[in-house]
Design brief:
By secondary structure, this protein is of the alpha/beta class. It is about 40% helix and about 15% strand. It has a six-stranded parallel sheet with strand order 3-2-1-4-5-6, with helices on both faces. A six-stranded parallel sheet has the order 11-10-9-12-13-14. Strands 7-8 form a two-stranded parallel ribbon. α12 links the parallel β9 and β10. The longest helix has about 30 residues.
Length: about 425
Amino acid sequence: MFIAVYGDTLCAMVSAAALASTGHQVTLHVSPGGVANTLNTGNFSLREPGLADLMLEQKREGRLQVVGLDQRPDPRVTVLWLALAPDLLDYGHELVRSLPVDIDPEFLVVNQSTFPVGSTEALQRTMQSREGADARHGAVVSVPDLLTEGAALNGFVRSEHWLVGADIPWAGRLVAEILRPFNRRRDAIMSMRPREAEFTKLAINGMLATRLSFMNDMANLADSLDVDIEMVRQGMGADQRIGEAYLYPGCGFGGLSFSRDVMSLASTLQHSGLQAQLIEEVLQINERQKEALFRKLWQHYDTELTGRKVAIWGAAFKPQSSRIDNAPALKLITALWAQGAEVHVHDPRALPALAAWAGERDDLVLHDDPYEAAAGADALMLVTEWKAYWSPDFKRLHAEMNKPLLLDGRNVWDPGFVKRAGFTYYGIGRR
């Protein structure tokens, strides 16, 4: 098939590469500043595991090409795949409205964008209302983006489940055919109405965020009860009714898509006239949790942080990402600046984004080496759980830091081990 994928999102690039790898002729439409345009320059800034290699391979094989976002689909295209940013809903309608009058009777529009609930049905109405077009031709289906940054490509080609929202039977069957190469181990497609698929995606992220915030609340309570939250986490996870996923307390979640989906769910509830008390509380807990390490540091030094040198390991909102959207590190750094602290940061990938966010400042120093960031520090805060931070040279850290104080925002270090190594340790509900 000839497929036109529109969007600058990670989802757009993963979908385009994966679909091309199964033999489709795919055109990826991106804006002039889209990272896909840098694919051949060696400066492909989105370091999603395996993605750049697969995209380059498909370009060499002639199955994938990258063109402008403003370019209309090739006349041979029979699948229009929308993986647009949430603020481009109007552009999505414009694309559908501009489709030729004589489209194939089974012309398919796949909406993978995170638009408000009901957007797929609205796009269907736009398609049917094109002047001179046969309203029986074409269909719009919802296939929500369930990808996780850092494992997005694997999440597409080996998806645990697909949500497919289709009101028209042939459209659902055609989506199943497109996804067939990625749906061989077992039938992972869950069929439902479009708005049910859209809402399910928001509800999934709402539930995950709720679990995280609940565990953060429990970790904060564990601190006051002299309880080790790790023992509690293991006990809860052993209960099959609960399970182990998303029970790790920490210093808050970030990320553009995840945070946006939770906020979108809260907004959807509010606009429906219902009280979004639980989701709003989840968001509030998360924002408070981003300052958890700061509060521990502030109390440790009896509120005197002026002139202190504080090292931070990890600025990205999650490992394997170069992005800092809503990252806990941003709120933490801002709080430290407000108290007159000097902040030294190391991150394997996110330093350029952090530099762009902060601008030129004397109280922020970025380091390419984690030990240089920690040298002479009065405290070291671990904020993003990059694997390289899990087993550092603690003897070197102890020798080079001004004060051997560790604040573990992801509970990756063993409290007993680092205390025996001579450190003062604070975790999230750890003892």
